[in-house]
Amino acid sequence: MSITSKSAQARPPRRAAGSMKRQQTRTAYLFLGLPLLFFLIVRFLPTLMALRMSLFDWNILKEVQPFVGLENYARLAQDDRFLGALKNTALYTVIGVPAQIALGLAVALMLGRVTVLRGLYRALYFAPYVTPIVAAAWVWQWLFSPQFGPVNTFLTWLHIPPQAFLTSPSQALGTTAALIVWQNLGFQIVLFLAGLAAIPRTFYEAAEIDGATGLQAFRSITLPLLNPTMVFSVVTGTISYLQLFTQVVNLNFTDQGGPLGSTMTVALYIYQLAFGRFQMGYASAVTVVLFVIILLITVIQLKFLTRRYDV
Amino acid sequence: MTSLTDPQPHVPTGPRRMNVGTALIYAGLTVGVIVTLFPFAWMLLTSLKGFQELFNLSFLPQQPTLDNYSQVLTQTKFLVWFGNSLLVAGITTLSVLFFDSLVGYTLAKFDFPGKNLIFLLILSTLMIPTEMLVIPWFVGVSDLQLTRSVPGAYFAIMFPGLISAFGVFLMRQFFESLPTDLLEAARIDGMGEFGIFWRIAMPLVRPALASLGIFTFLGNWNAFLWPLIVIQQPQFRTLPVGTALFNGEAGTQWGLIMAASSLAVIPVLIVFAIFQKQIIDGIVLTGLKG
Fold first, then answer.
1. The pLDDT of residue A124 is above 60
2. How many beta-carbon pairs under 8 angstroms link A with B?
3. Domain total for chain B?
4. What is the C-alpha to C-alpha distance for residues A225 and A192, in angstroms, rounded to an integer?
5. Is residue B154 part of a domain?
């Protein structure tokens, strides 16, 4: 900006730089006081408290909370429900993240090639993202109902026998994942549209002159230059799938995690342990494990996915 | 058309294939939109069906009726939950806008010892899973017996969201791009530090405030886990919690459920239609500046 350079010269000579700095520090800490207190009390102290609780047999209904050391963690290693939830959570992530990225990128690429009605299409794809999950989950239950769901009616037209979907231990997780992908798709599309827009057009012109096919251009220009957007998508998507709760609870009338626990996630298991059985010490141990998993996966993803390209 | 709001990816298009290709793309996009919107259509149409035709599989209701809606509004606490959500999400959003801006501004425009450390500490809280915090929050709220009275119950629902680390990060990015000399000029004119922030800096980041505000509101309007845990008395339930538990209390009354869902979706969709540009700007900024 031109204003910046002009008034930079007109700046008054520094008077007592030291006292000005002290003044700034005082004001800064005055402004930050309340928010820092907030982060301390609402974020950091509870984190430490969860770490501490995980070492106790902490039950909110009981008078005494005996110290048990690492016993909760040892118990976790043999807890089939926990291991099942962990496996399901991994499955959700492995199905959901690639699916929503692939679909999001496909639609964004298509939207990039049309001009008429683009805004409308984008808005329509985005609508599920702003829909309350509870409402979406109910509609999903109806749509995929084995007895009176329209999806099965549609399958009958295609001469495919009706499926059990949410009531089947082998299909419930996939059906739940479909709901989440449906909800997240609009967000992915907008993200990729922005990422694609940031790629300089000259690259494609040069590729065309060199006789590159569309697929070659996509592989050697679009994908590499989309890397920052992709990393953001993978990392934030993975974190959110690892904390899956609301969709899973609301797709089943009981909060037991689907038929035979087939849709149960780690977050839902934490909820059951802490607020159904009040085993808060044990539940805290699960949260600590979840925290460590999220931290490790995020660090690994950032390390291996991030590429630097000189433009 | 090259603004951030309307990104135009530059994909090479062979002029010869243009027409057939474009037609195929429109066809693909339209199929996608139909699949995407089918659940909404189903919900809305089912909510208009009377009890006797609820389970016949016709797409359109034969005799549309608003009975389900009048029942939801008169025989459930829907309006109370709606009001609770509005109150909780509204206050939270105002708090986030004010405090996140103040912190973001301070971290961007002041020079003081500990600045980078504070920023890193705030950012690091983004990695803590909510599940980990929820248990200690619940123990704390129970110890203080907050949830029995009116201000306490609402405060208990709201307090975890009053300041957001993500918003701090976003606002700091915006304030960094603000010319410092503008603020210095006001300083020389004798304006107080808070006045400079409130009356000079804040109006200049209005677009950022709009998208942060909308995202915060939507997030809190749809919040589920913590409100479900912390509220014990039905009159303090928010809309998602009220409607989720409504199923168990009302039996599986699908007509009512679909009407309640439609009522919960409609205001959000209206907000979305009005603020579409800001919402999309917000995603673009978070995705690219992240």
1. yes
2. 308
3. 2
4. 11
5. yes
Asked if residue B259 and residue B229 are part of one domain, the reply reads: yes
H helix intervals, chain B? 18-47, 67-75, 78-109, 115-124, 130-144, 150-158, 165-176, 180-188, 193-195, 202-204, 206-221, 225-230, 239-250, 254-289
Segments in chain B below pLDDT 70? 1-18, 56-57, 247-252, 286-290
Whether B261 sits inside 8 A of A138 (CB atoms) is yes
Residue B114, C-beta contacts closer than 8 angstroms, at least 6 positions apart: none
Of chain A residues 91-110, which have a CB less than 8 A from chain B? 107-110
Is B135 in the same domain as B85? yes
pLDDT, position A296? 95
Of all residues in chain A, the one with the smallest CA distance to B177 is A1
Residues spanned by the domain of B39: 20-55
Q: What is the pLDDT of residues A191-249, one digit of tens each?
A: 898 888 888 889 988 998 988 888 898 988 999 989 888 998 999 999 999 999 999 99
Residues B137 and B161: their CA atoms lie apart, in Å, by 12
Which ipTM did the prediction report? 0.86
Closest alpha carbon to A86 in A278, A233, A276, A241 = A241
B interface mutation test: which of A138, A215, A270 has the most B CBs within 10 A? A138
Chain B residues within 8 A of A31 when measuring between CB atoms? 102-103, 105-106, 110, 193-194, 197
**Could B288 and A125 be called an inter-chain contact, meaning their C-beta atoms sit closer than 8 Å?**
no
Does residue B79 belong to any structural domain of this protein?
Answer: yes
> Do B168 and B245 share a domain, yes or no?
yes
pLDDT at A242: 95
Domain match, B171 and B235 both:
yes
Confidence band for A151, pLDDT divided at 50, 70 and 90: very high
pLDDT for position B243: 84
